[in-house]
Amino acid sequence: PHFKLAFSYRITTLMKFLTPLSWLTLPLLSQSYFTPPPPTSPATSLPNKLYEWRGQNIRYQAAGPSNSPNTVLLIHGLFVNSDHWRYTLSGLSEAGYRVYAIDLLGSGYSSKPPRDSPAAQSLCGERARFASDTAILKGIELGTAAGGLRLADVDLRHPLDSCYNFFTWSEQISDFTRDVIGTASRTTLVANSIGTISSLQAASDNRSLFDGVFVVNPNFRELHSAEIPFSTLSMPVLRVVQRLLRERGQGLFDALATPETVKEILKEPYAVTEAIDDTLVSVLLDPLLTPGASDVVFDTLSYSAGPLPEQQLQKMEDCPVWVCYGDKDPWTPSRRVEKLKDLKSVQRVIRLEGVGHCPHDEAPHLVNPLILEFLKEIGRGTE
């Protein structure tokens, strides 16, 4: 019975967070959607820049000395964008680092090609990576909410063959590093939530580009087929819910598309509710109201596959990783995060008291010093 309750709670929690975002859908068109960002970010006062990646526009921000050899790339979480790093951009750049933050494909002000369009299909990072018999990893050791271990099969491929997957985003991260940041020295990745998975994948695939990963609250993908209890029975039900959201969810999203609703929703992941100011609500909500954004949201809600943190970290023994997390995070089980210390690549796990899923925005005075300590530890100090 407790498994059923846990499954029900996870579905309810996710839908409570995502329902207000449904205001997003527009008709599927053949072209790639792109809405130019404002010249300057309201959250950071930094100029918004564009990087052309495989025919798509990628929005990014940069701060700090342009000639600094010490570079950091910030990777955001689910349904947010580079503005979510407003305090990290300022904190690290003031310490002498060159810091970049990007909007992943489909997020923020980056391009949003429709899933089935030729442009999107050509971008899909899964296509060249998997043969039909290599997309499922058998018997992978994963954690549990209680801090234990279990074996599960991990399905890596997006069920809709969508380009909005962690392998596409990891390729975007690596290409941005080569093309914009440069390869004179290696870059450090800092990631929040599901941005962790794209970052770990990029670091795993391209060790010559990256010297470490600092994780702010990992995400274990509650709706992944390897995470849902009794998946044989529950996944068909979940697939129906996902399909209904793709086909009929727009009206509900539209009805709840208000700053007041978004502010209330953010009070679930944010334990420090004072951090939820009007600027935060605006910079998260405005890009989600642009053409094409709703399709990406519904697509992502159907992504019950892809790599998982423990599976990735088991193959990254030569890449230093630190993890910090808020002890009030309602979505990330603390015991499972603590268990990551048993993996060779994870050098430290730091518990932050009184903060939730987004400590970098809720309590930057706690997170920025830890990132700086990590950078010095792996030899990226500016002194």
Summarize the structure.
With 383 residues, this protein is α/β, with parallel strands linked by helices. It is built from 14 helices and ten strands. It is globular, with a radius of gyration of 19 Å.
Quick tags:
383 residues; alpha/beta; eight-stranded mixed β-sheet; two-stranded antiparallel sheet; 14 helices; 10 strands; 37% helix; globular; disordered N terminus
Structure description:
There is one protein chain. With 383 residues, the protein is α/β, with parallel strands linked by helices. It contains 14 helices and ten strands. An eight-stranded mixed sheet has the order 1-2-4-3-7-8-9-10, with helices on both faces. A two-stranded antiparallel sheet has the order 5-6. Helix 4 packs across helix 5. The longest helix is centred in the middle third of the chain and has 18 residues. The N terminus is likely disordered.
- Largest beta sheet: strand ordering: 1-2-4-3-7-8-9-10
- State the end-to-end distance: 56 Å
Strand content: 15-25%
Chain-averaged pLDDT: 91
Return residue spans where pLDDT drops below 50 for at least 5 consecutive residues.
1-30
Task: Please trace the helix and strand order, writing H or E for each element.
Answer: HEEEHEHEEHEHEHHHHHHEHEHH
Round the Cα radius of gyration to an integer and report it.
19 Å
Q: Which outline best applies? A: globular
Helix tally? Answer: 14
Number of strands: 10
SS content category: alpha/beta
Give the helix proportion (percent range): 25-40%
Q: How would a crystallographer describe the biggest sheet?
A: 8 strands, mixed
